[in-house]
Amino acid sequence: MAVLIYLEHEEGAIKKSSLEAVSYGKTLAESLGTEALAVGLGSIPTGEWAHVGHAGASKGYHVTDERLNAGVILAHAAAVSQVFEHAGAEILVLAKSSLGDAVAARLSVKLQAALVSNVVALPDLSDGFQVKRSIFTGKAFAVTAVKTPKKILAIKKNILDIRQDTHDITIEKFAVTLGEKAFSAKITGTDKAEGEISLPEADIVVSGGRGLKGPENWGIIEDLAKAFGAATGCSKPVSDLNWRPHHEHVGQTGIKVSPSLYVAVGISGAIQHLAGVNSSKKILVINKDPDAPFFKSADYGVVGDAFEVLPKLTEAIKAIK
Amino acid sequence: MKILVCITHVPDTTSRIQFTDNNTNFDKTGVQFVIGPYDDYALARAVELRDQTGGKLTVLNVGEAETDPTLRKALAIGADEAIRINAHPKDSYFVSQQIAHVAKEGAYDLILMGRESSDYNGGMVHGMVGEMMDLPSISPVMKLDIEGNSAKLSREIEGGKEELEVSLPLIVGCQEPIAEWKIPNMRGIMSARTKPLTVRDEATYEAHAAVVSYSLPPAKGTVKLFDKEQVEELVKLLKNEANVL
Ligand SMILES: Cc1cc2nc3c(=O)[nH]c(=O)nc-3n(C[C@H](O)[C@H](O)[C@H](O)COP(=O)(O)OP(=O)(O)OC[C@H]3O[C@@H](n4cnc5c(N)ncnc54)[C@H](O)[C@@H]3O)c2cc1C
Ligand SMILES: Nc1ncnc2c1ncn2[C@@H]1O[C@H](COP(=O)(O)O)[C@@H](O)[C@H]1O
Predict the structure, then answer these.
(1) Ligand approaching nearest to the C-alpha of A257
(2) Given Cys at both, which of A91, A124, A189, B126 links A130, Cβ 3.0 to 4.6 Å?
(3) CB neighbours of residue B6 within 10 Å
């Protein structure tokens, strides 16, 4: 009957979105009168497990196999399904991500559990099991009735606060059996920006568009991002022009973000860009054109030249912090 | 090589989304339907690979008769044949069952899909079909090359990318810049009319979930505007109203 939460981590550090999933799972477990358990794969230090406990999990299954430090989709799916069965869980909760999506899809078939993705709220249990999810890239919502006894919920980022429970978590080391097949996709290399704030995980995102005129002007974006403690993003033409790397491109065909604050600088606000940012809690737009469409979707706006506004804004933030 | 590309038939990305029948159905009035943007990348790469290695390229959609023009467009872009499984796509699980059913018979070396559909954005069908067929599924993939019996791919991960090597057969969820979108030319459009489009009955499978109702997000309040001399005021609001500082 229990609720199991699948954790993702970056070099051992549990992702914020996974802690949100733990808190979601715990609150759901409370309304079902059951427990929230977590499963973590690969090397995760004890201190990190404590965060998982405070976010709501009473027990953690730790599969220490180091081959699972990498996001090997088949192996992760196989490991989580073994823990799920062992724990007698009925619901799996995870944070939506490119790895999470892939693992959840395979688990849905393995466990014969309905998978609902992009979940934005706790389920309504008053008439069966109904969950609200975001569809049409944030332009609408659908309430979905889940028909299977086992269920998998992939939740959107930043839809709830992480709990600060005081109880401790007990950790059980759990060994899984993984055949050769689980590692049939060989990872031959990774190329990752080090030390940057992760764009999909960030609480504040500062993005620049074609209005910045060229890659040499990104310094003012980076300064503003630094003052905010934000990750940097960009519009599609900016990554198409190779001003910025592809993994920073936000929108319909890029990364979808849902930070507490999205700052758009020199971006016109095309519908395909909005599709990637419309679930942000607040939006600040800086554009020299008062008629830029983005202002219609913004909470705050500065009408002015980015090259004049950004340095002033950066200073003002530093002053208040 | 035999390649299968699964395509969705979705509202154009600029469409206004509205619902009818007391918010229980999507309102198709005035909406233009297109090949899903990610599926378009998958199709473009499939055409290139077919041209390189020879073989046959099949496109597949699970949908009702209204999706035929979308399949014809895929034929015009370069697919050799199309299959439509005549069914209302109830949920991802149901759609995956239909795809896996047909794909098992076809013995394809490569199955390409979009990273996600632009209507339900699940990013799930490739993984589900992979599990149903006991094949690896890799997504979101930005680069795909075939060398003999194995595929070299580059997959986007948070903050970067990962290089992979996998033997065929394989399922891939595609995204840019895997290939440039292809626009059908006149010859393609003419030949598409005579290429085979087979309609098949659905296989019997249950859906796992069903939509009860739809809704739209609440309208945004009016924007609070400032000029460059008022950034201190703005920052105060960011701190005290938006609570982000
Ligand atoms: C199928 C499809 C998918 C797409 N997917 C995406 C996507 O995922 N993400 C995405 O971003 N786009 C996407 N696009 C492209 C999208 O339609 C727009 O073309 C794009 O978002 C525009 O980028 P931009 O706002 O940076 O540039 P522009 O539209 O050129 O806007 C530049 C803005 O900068 C302002 N500006 C200029 N100078 C200054 C200055 N000195 N100070 C302040 N402001 C200034 C201008 O007023 C203007 O508003 C997609 C398009 C299609 C067809
Ligand atoms: N009804 C369908 N017919 C054919 N292919 C589909 C269908 N639905 C989804 N797909 C494929 O699966 C991919 C992922 O879809 P989704 O899991 O819905 O985000 C899409 O990009 C398509 O390639």
Answers:
(1) 1
(2) A124
(3) 30
